[in-house]
Task: inverse folding
């Protein structure tokens, strides 16, 4: 067995997907499966497809290219979530069905490439309702839409918004109403209705209890499906598995040591000033995994009495004094992964999948 590794439970991902697909359907929304948290790992993509996903979205073109090469049942659509780089316009037009946009310069580049290829590229326009990441402010939306409609290589497929990612702004019915009212103004302006009104990410599912406003017909979900958690609202999602991914790493040292370092304290390997509590002599274990592979704040030991102390690029230090089990060098310990922990381990070339 090779460590460190992530064990992926495909059945739990399929179950979480199906559960979310059905909940969204009851709200009138189709679900887009967001794969960026796992670098579009094949097992994950296949499990999502089995759970009913027909549209896959990722922020990286490289990940979408992986999905494009997989043989999935039925036709799937690929969405590029992050605003395209102008320098990748050609590849975007070639490889993805739909991209999210807010910039005229980028739309022009996409249009140029689409016309050259003799095809129509589909775009969603991103509106910022307050989280202050990507998207135009609502007051600038109509001029962006007007510009898009004037570009013959593009097809205006829909409008979208996203909250909770940068500003930590909580989703609200009012934001969705803003999106809907922009869509209806657009309809008056251009004489046809846009196909998709994409209301948000995992955080937005908290509004299911109040009912999504009529007209919101799409949600883009990664975290809720993958780890059954909603970071923005800091909520464990009832009825979803939280342990579809388990990280395992091997113990390379067990020693009794003081809990307070000996000598004058400067800065740690990452330039931060560490703080310690003196708890006397403690039993400690070192695991062969580090900050290069995982975010320590986003993993939870499955074994009782195991406490994360910290670590460095290649070492994870644990206090195992309270642990009932007898642990030995060579044993592996398991951890449940949060969303950012998952992203890091899936990205690390040193973690076996
Ligand atoms: C990451 C992302 C999502 C999915 O977010 P989750 O919190 O994983 O559900 C949706 N939309 C956009 C634009 C994103 O960048």
Result:
């Amino acid at each position: 067995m090779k460590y460190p590794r992530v064990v992926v439970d495909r059945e739990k991902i399929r179950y979480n997907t199906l559960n979310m697909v059905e909940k969204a359907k009851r709200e009138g929304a189709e679900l887009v499966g967001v794969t960026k948290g796992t670098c579009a790992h094949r097992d994950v993509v296949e499990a999502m497809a089995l759970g009913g996903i027909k549209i896959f979205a990722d922020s990286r073109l490289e990940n979408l290219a992986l999905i494009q090469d997989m043989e999935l049942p039925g036709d799937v659509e690929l969405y590029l979530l992050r605003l395209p780089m102008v320098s990748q316009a050609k590849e975007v037009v070639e490889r993805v069905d739909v991209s999210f946009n807010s910039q005229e310069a980028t739309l022009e580049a996409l249009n140029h490439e689409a016309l050259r290829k003799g095809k129509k590229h589909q775009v969603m326009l991103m509106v910022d309702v307050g989280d202050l990441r990507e998207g135009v402010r609502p007051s600038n939306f109509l001029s962006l839409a007007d510009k898009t409609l004037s570009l013959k290589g593009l097809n205006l497929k829909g409008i979208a918004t996203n909250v909770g990612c940068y500003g930590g702004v909580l989703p609200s019915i009012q934001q969705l109403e803003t999106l809907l009212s922009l869509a209806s103004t657009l309809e008056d302006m251009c004489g046809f209705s846009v196909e998709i009104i994409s209301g948000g990410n995992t955080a937005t599912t908290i509004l299911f209890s109040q009912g999504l406003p009529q007209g919101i017909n799409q949600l883009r979900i990664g975290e809720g499906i993958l780890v059954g958690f909603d970071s923005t609202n800091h909520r464990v999602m009832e009825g979803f598995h939280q342990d579809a991914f388990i990280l395992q790493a091997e113990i390379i040292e067990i020693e009794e040591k003081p809990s307070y370092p000996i000598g004058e304290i400067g800065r740690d390997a990452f330039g931060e000033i560490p703080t310690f509590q003196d708890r006397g002599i403690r039993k400690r274990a070192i695991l062969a995994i580090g900050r290069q592979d995982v975010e320590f704040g986003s993993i939870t030991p499955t074994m009782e009495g195991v406490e994360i102390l910290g670590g460095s690029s290649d070492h994870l230090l644990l206090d195992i004094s309270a642990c009932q089990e007898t642990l030995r060098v060579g044993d592996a310990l398991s951890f449940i992964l949060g969303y950012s922990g998952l992203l890091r381990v899936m990205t690390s070339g040193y973690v076996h999948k």
Summary: The chain is about 30% helix and 25% strand. The CA atoms of residues 89 and 110 lie 5 Å apart. Residues 34, 36, 59, 81, 162, 201-202, 220-224 surround pyridoxal-5'-phosphate (CB under 6 Å). The radius of gyration is 23 Å.
